């Protein structure tokens, strides 16, 4: 799920490569050290982002320390960041309440009974794709499916990171194709094309990527074995809160309303049916909210760091450098892809990245006669590609928080975003008739 940026977002001062150094600090501390010591938990993501935040404040020039902290705090207090915090709080409370009353276990048992073992991974991916396409929000899809995916991983002894990654990958399928996705709306509006035209352009790239990812999950899941279910009856009342969440999400209700309804359902059913006491429900909610603490801290720190990167000219530098070397239509398309990818790295929000570089992409597409549906498709697919693999994106943090694993454990199995990247690059590189230079009129 993504939102439009605040109208009062601070504009960059001037292009600056140095402004991007906080991201380098984060990646060096978090990714490089973790890979070097072969321990994905070696460096807590909160510590890595704290170091990046301190560095971002220190390198900001022309402001007093108090003003730098104010700029950082304005990024933390961004309404999109705060919206995500409320979603995390409600998601934590619902997930723990549902688990304590037995909703997750009952749903897992129902799933295992309905689906054949060797198609379990593929079925989870298909379900994630379908829900994300229906609701148009990747975060909402992860909220709905990640708890069940974790339960399935425990029941089948499959990798929790892999099962969670399947949900995350499928969740971005909807961002690519759904007519009600924020990324679709932003891409089509900035490029001036109809949604159906962008959908047709996207299908040629997204559908093959989804089929290839599905094939990978079929092969990986061919030897998955679930425990014997016996003849135990399905506990439908325990499944009800979860079914309510899925149905209301598919109905297009806002994710916060969906989570609130689900949370109330766990209380009414759990207390009413005697699955737990009223105070136990309160304790479960509190434990779930507390369990999201690291996720909330990282989200707040990321908001502040990215605000300073924007203010110091990091995004302006990327735009200037990439657009200065365009030679032909193919190069123009790769430039649009690079622009939105780099902007997404700096904003950790695919919709904001599209809005940031959309006008520049429109100028490039007009100059090199790129159809609007094509530029909108490039903006959408490459922003979702980057959003799907960065460890500090809202979707990855949400999934990692629910699964209680490092984001790096999930990234290892993110086949769909990576295959989407290969298909998107191939669609530009192999398309005929795109090497001619644009003739000036």
From TrEMBL:
Residues forming the Na+/H+ antiporter NhaC-like C-terminal domain are: 18-222, 247-430
Where primarily located?
Answer: membrane
Q: List UniProt keywords, sorted A-Z.
A: Antiport, Cell membrane, Membrane, Transmembrane, Transmembrane helix, Transport
Q: In its keyword annotation, does this UniProt entry include NAD?
A: no
Tell me the domain of life. Answer: Bacteria
A GO molecular-function descriptor = antiporter activity
Q: Does the keyword Chloroplast apply?
A: no
Q: Spell out where the chain crosses the membrane.
A: 15-33, 40-60, 80-98, 119-146, 158-180, 201-222, 242-275, 295-319, 339-361, 414-431
Q: Which GO terms describe its cellular component?
A: plasma membrane
- Family designation: Belongs to the NhaC Na(+)/H(+) (TC 2.A.35) antiporter family.
Annotated protein name in UniProt: Sodium:proton antiporter
The protein's organism comes out as Akkermansia muciniphila
């Amino acid at each position: 799920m993504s939102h439009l940026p605040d109208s009062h977002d601070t504009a960059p001062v001037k292009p600056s490569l140095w402004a991007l150094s906080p991201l380098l600090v984060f990646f060096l501390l978090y990714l490089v050290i973790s890979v070097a010591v072969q321990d994905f938990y070696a460096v807590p993501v909160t510590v890595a982002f704290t170091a990046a935040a301190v560095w971002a404040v220190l390198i900001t020039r022309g402001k007093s320390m108090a003003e730098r902290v104010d700029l950082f705090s304005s990024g933390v207090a961004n309404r999109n960041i705060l919206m995500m915090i409320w979603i995390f709080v409600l998601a934590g409370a619902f997930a723990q309440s549902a688990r304590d009353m037995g909703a997750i276990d009952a749903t897992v048992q129902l799933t295992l009974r309905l689906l054949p073992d060797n198609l379990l991974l593929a079925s989870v991916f298909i379900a994630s794709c379908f829900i994300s396409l229906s609701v148009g929000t990747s975060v909402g899809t992860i909220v709905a499916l990640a708890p069940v995916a974790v339960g399935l991983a425990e029941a089948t002894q499959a990798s929790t990171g892999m099962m969670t990654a399947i949900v995350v990958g499928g969740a971005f399928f909807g961002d690519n194709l759904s007519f009600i996705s924020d990324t679709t709306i932003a891409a089509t509006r900035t490029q001036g094309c109809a949604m159906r035209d962008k959908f047709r352009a996207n299908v040629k790239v997204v559908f093959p990527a989804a089929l290839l990812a599905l094939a990978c999950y079929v092969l990986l899941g061919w030897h998955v074995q679930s425990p014997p279910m016996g003849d135990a009856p399905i506990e439908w009342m325990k499944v009800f809160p979860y079914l309510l969440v899925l149905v209301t999400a598919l109905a297009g209700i806002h994710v916060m309303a969906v989570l609130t309804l689900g949370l109330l359902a766990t209380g009414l059913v759990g207390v009413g049916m005697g699955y737990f006491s009223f105070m136990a429900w309160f304790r479960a909610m509190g434990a779930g909210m507390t369990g999201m603490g690291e996720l909330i801290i990282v989200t707040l720190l990321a908001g502040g760091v990215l605000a300073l990167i924007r203010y110091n000219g990091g995004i302006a530098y990327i735009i200037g450098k990439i657009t200065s070397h365009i030679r032909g239509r193919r190069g123009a398309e790769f430039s649009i892809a690079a622009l939105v990818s780099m902007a997404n790295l700096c904003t950790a929000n695919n919709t904001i990245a599209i809005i940031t570089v959309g006008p520049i992409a429109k100028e490039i597409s007009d100059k090199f006669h790129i159809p609007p549906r094509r530029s909108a498709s490039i903006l959408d697919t490459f922003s979702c590609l980057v959003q799907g693999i960065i460890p500090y994106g809202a979707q990855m943090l949400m999934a990692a928080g629910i699964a209680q694993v490092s984001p790096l454990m999930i990234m290892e199995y993110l086949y769909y975003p990576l295959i989407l990247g290969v298909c998107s690059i191939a669609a530009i590189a192999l398309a005929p008739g795109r090497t001619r230079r644009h003739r000036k009129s």
